Amino acid sequence: MEIIGQKVIPAIANEKDFEKFLESKYTYCVIMNMNISQLGILIDMAHKQKKKALVHIDLIHGLANDEYGCEYTCQRLRADGVISTKGKVVEMAKRNKKIAILRLFLIDSKSLDKGLSLCNTVLPDYMEVLPGIADSIIPYIKSRVNVSIMSGGLIKTEEQIDACLNKGAIAVTVSDIKIAIKYLERDRG
To answer: Which residue positions in the chain have pLDDT lower than 50?
Structure first.
């Protein structure tokens, strides 16, 4: 599955930023740090605007970040995709024919090796590597997995987005909606 033509994916953590996303030319967003009671409404709003919502299931308050929470998110709430650090959740998203993104936090060499092994076992559609400011590791990761790489985390400037993309990431998640929109305007300008 491809996220076509979108180099930056806004990571939305509040309703105000979600409204800005809906008004933007972006198609995809990541929903995180929201309450489960808001989730279905936000996904429906996105779909009515012909937009797609990827849910960071590990960061939704009141939703279990396990296979059952993923199944509920995919089937009942109709999310377009799921992001998780857990292999079982990624596998459930794939079984539900949703975009499946494995999130990898780079803490040390051991976490990197464990994440690469998990990625090669569950074969997500994408691997999101964090923090994005560690862009120099992207070529190494790309050489060890057969999955498209996304990056995100601690991204504060357009130059940091460019650095991730130039190192081989196909997209960058950005939690600052102003930076995301500014990048889109610059990229299309």
So the answer is: 1, 189
